[in-house]
DNA sequence: GCAGTTGCCGAAAACGTTTTCGAGAACGTA
DNA sequence: TACGTTCTCGAAAACGTTTTCGGCAACTGC
């Protein structure tokens, strides 16, 4: 809490024996200043531990060097990695990030949006908690916006989403390559596009292999371990010869594993299990450790930051960009021997 | 992306037919302006959707209206709720928060600190990933700092920590009130003060009840389900008449429950289990749902924000403040019948 | 009617930069 | 010598506010 007056460019200029104008130009790498004077100014700045007042800079340049991260939710596990990726991409450069949590409330979102615009952020990343489409913030914003995870309903906006369809395809593909033929799909709330898309991808891959879903249909339910357990019991009852389960989330997969374990059904030798999300605390600690699909969320955040930077530099984009997911192989799947 | 020139106070003043000086005073609630003129100015501001340029304001008032949230880690689960609490406390007011993630790297932390100071934040909250003491940022910072979760090693700083000793005491107290007498404690890495403190609290409460720890000593190990499972097997082997287990984390508790379930030992009727952390995904989905201790992290974040606000208003504090934890009763504990 | 007080308003300085533009010096060329 | 160029630098304007201070008019009390 030192209270000494902060050092300004004037002080630097005085110490270096030049005017503030040249001091400014020297520090900003403008060419019209002699090398020797520049060195003198830089030295003076270092001696005084000068750091330019960003308000004065922003005031004149009309750029704040900040972006806003507007998240609908910090509770869930999906927004955090995205924020991490975005923060990392910006924070290691010269831009600082404002964090705003709307807590699922539209009013609060509006409040934060207004606050961010008042602070003259140069850009905005809107990250959703669910991959379902969300309302656009509008077209008349003074700054570029990138929507991450939850796409905007306006195709003129730029949205970045994970490839849930591809993820479903990938999961089933892996099971088929493991020699499985009687594959069931237990997943969460059918009101989530995540559930629908993953199921669609799964069915698509099954179809192209000439296979049908074990159990006859997708088992929609809830995103919980309890549902995973309940559905698995029903599944074993109705379709005892199932040899693989694709769970729509790692939580559900934990429930599946739990019941299989209880029933003394060997995993993966008799039934293979694959999850979704790669939620480490659940997947890595499972018995056996869970093969699953990673959404590459941190990469999604990083890409969002790149797209936003591009837009801020005058290269806007629009439409929905789908980013790839990847398979994480652990011990709950293996080829049939 | 409308490109029309942003409206300034001059525009408002012109429309209202006053000078910028009175316009400023009118909008800022200064008394020396007639009610009728004030109304005219406010109306004009609304019509033009005026929002003051915060850079100009900050430049003159020497206050940015922003704070920095400097976290050592976003991976873990502990920093997030703290950030949420702090963001909520500030964000609903007029201050915006910068988010900086050091990713466990001192270099990066220094970089972020410099960036935040350059942005002239009015204050700083440093949140750690572990409750162990961390190095102070120093005494010569131009803004007040509050350390949350991980206390500073400098007693002149203000640190806010959770009451791990009290939590251990609380957990064992609950088990004793449930009529348990042969209580074991399985916990994580002894290198964590969290493990040591909780164990200390547990032993303290046992002592005051004249009890000894079942198994003879604290079972230190790792913060994982696997360790929970392994330790429980050893425990049952060495001490088959145990009637309660206090797990040092919910992860460990999950492992404990798993083995008890496997061994067909009824929970809570024969053995009661209590966890720590109230990590919802683990605790609520456990079989049976897990009684545990909640760290009140969001409240910790909120309190940190309050303390920081006080310090920014000229009421600094120092020392370490310990915040209470609370018991979450679910179904893994119950009175002996 | 007059001095003193109060209420309301505007001109101008200030905050700390960046940028434009003009001036002087040094240089080369004819 | 005269002239055009190229370097280097500084004075000053600008960014959009807040705040101080002085001025004017309308009151008050006598």
Automatic annotation (TrEMBL), chains A, B:
Keywords: DNA-binding, Transcription, Transcription regulation. CDD domains: HTH_LacI, PBP1_sucrose_transcription_regulator. SUPFAM superfamilies: lambda repressor-like DNA-binding domains, Periplasmic binding protein-like I. One of its GO terms (molecular function) is DNA-binding transcription factor activity. Residues 7-61 form the HTH lacI-type domain. Signal peptide: none annotated. This is LacI family DNA-binding transcriptional regulator. Transmembrane segments: none annotated. It holds the Pfam family Peripla_BP_3.
């Amino acid at each position: 809490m030192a209270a000494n007056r902060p050092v300004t460019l004037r002080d630097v200029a005085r110490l270096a024996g030049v005017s503030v104008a040249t001091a400014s130009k020297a520090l900003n790498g403008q060419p019209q200043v002699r090398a020797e004077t520049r060195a003198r100014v830089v030295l003076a700045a270092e001696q005084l531990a000068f750091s330019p007042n960003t308000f004065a800079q922003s005031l004149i340049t009309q750029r704040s060097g900040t972006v806003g991260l507007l998240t609908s939710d910090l509770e869930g596990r999906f927004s955090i990695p995205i924020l991490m990726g975005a923060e990392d991409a910006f924070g290691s450069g010269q831009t600082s990030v404002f964090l705003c949590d709307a807590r699922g409330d539209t009013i609060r979102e509006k409040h934060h949006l207004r606050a961010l615009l008042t602070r003259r952020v140069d850009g905005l990343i809107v990250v959703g908690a669910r991959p379902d489409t969300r309302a656009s913030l509008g077209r008349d914003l003074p700054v570029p916006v990138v929507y991450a995870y939850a796409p905007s309903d306006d195709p003129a906006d730029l949205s970045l989403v994970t490839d849930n369809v591809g993820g479903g395809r990938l999961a089933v593909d892996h099971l088929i390559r493991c020699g499985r033929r009687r594959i069931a799909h237990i997943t969460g709330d059918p009101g989530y596009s995540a559930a629908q898309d993953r199921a669609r991808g799964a069915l698509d891959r099954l179809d192209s292999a000439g296979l049908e879903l074990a159990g006859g249909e997708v088992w929609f339910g809830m995103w919980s371990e309890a549902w995973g357990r309940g559905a698995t019991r029903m599944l074993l009852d109705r379709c005892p010869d199932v040899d693989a389960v694709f769970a729509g989330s790692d939580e559900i997969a934990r429930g599946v594993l739990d019941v299989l374990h209880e029933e003394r059904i060997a995993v993966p030798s008799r039934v293979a299990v694959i999850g979704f999300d790669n939620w480490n605390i659940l997947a890595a600690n499972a018995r056996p450790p869970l093969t699953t699909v990673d959404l590459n969320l941190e990469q999604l955040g990083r890409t969002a930051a790149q797209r936003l930077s591009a837009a801020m530099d005058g290269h806007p984009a629009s439409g929905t960009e789908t980013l790839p997911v990847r398979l994480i192989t652990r011990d709950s799947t293996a080829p049939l021997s």
